[in-house]
Amino acid sequence: MNDTMFAREFAKELESELPATLKCLERIPPELFGWKPHEKSMELGYLALLCAEIPQWIIHIIRQPEIDFATYQHNTASKTQDLVDHFKNNVAGAKEALLNVKEGALAETFYLKANGQELLKSSKREQVEMCINHMVHHRGQLTVYMRLNDIAVPSIYGPSADDKSFMS
C-alpha cells in the first residue's frame, strides 16, 4: 500500500477511535487529575493528557524528522474541557496531516530522542502506525484508573458494566 493510501486508511482508523477516547476524556474530573494508583504510576491527569496528545504526535512525525523528549512541548490541562478540546484539535490536525501526505514522505527516517541521544530510529510510517496502538494502550490504562475511582467506564468496543443501554 502506498503512502497516500495508507495515510487515508489511517485517518479513517483514527476517526473510528475518536468516540471512545472522547467519552473517556469527558468523564475525567479535574479534582482527580493528581490521583495515581501507585507511587510508580502516572497521575490520572497526565495519563488523560497523554491520550489527548498522542494524535499530535502524528502531525509531528509527518512534518518533522524527530521528537526529542527534552524539547517536546506538552500541553497542560486544568479542567476536563481542556482535555477534550486538546484531543479534538489534535485529531483534526492529525487527519489533515494524514490526508496531505505526499508519496514517499512516510518512508523517511524518524528519530525519537532524549536530550539529543537517539532512542529509536524507524520509518515515519512505522511510527505513525504505532500511534493508534499507543493511544489505545493508554486509553485502556485510563479506563482502569476510571474504574478505581468509580467513574463510569463507557462502552468502547462493546458494552461495559456501566453502560446501561447494553444491559438487559
Descriptive account of the structure:
This protein has 168 residues and is mainly alpha-helical. The chain has one domain: dinb family like domain (Four Helix Bundle (Hemerythrin (Met), subunit A)). The protein contains four helices and three strands. The chain has helices spanning 3-25, 44-63, 80-99, 124-148, and strands at residues 66-68, 109-114, 117-123. The longest helix has 25 residues, at 124-148.
Category from helices, strands and their pairing: mainly alpha
Q: Please identify, by name, the CATH architecture.
A: Up-down Bundle
Cross-sheet strand order for the largest sheet = 1-2-3
What fraction, in percent, of the residue positions are helical? 40-55%
List the main descriptive attributes of the protein structure presented here.
168 residues; mainly alpha; Four Helix Bundle (Hemerythrin (Met), subunit A); 3-stranded mixed sheet; 4 helices; 3 strands; DinB family protein; metal-binding; DinB
In short:
The protein has helices at 3-25, 44-63, 80-99, 124-148; strands spanning 66-68, 109-114, 117-123. By secondary structure, the chain is mainly alpha-helical. The protein has a single domain (3-154), classed as dinb family like domain (Four Helix Bundle (Hemerythrin (Met), subunit A), Up-down Bundle), CATH 1.20.120.450.
Summarize the topology.
Blueprint: H1 3-25, H2 44-63, E1 66-68, H3 80-99, E2 109-114, E3 117-123, H4 124-148
Keywords: Metal-binding
Family: Belongs to the DinB family.
Protein name: DinB family protein
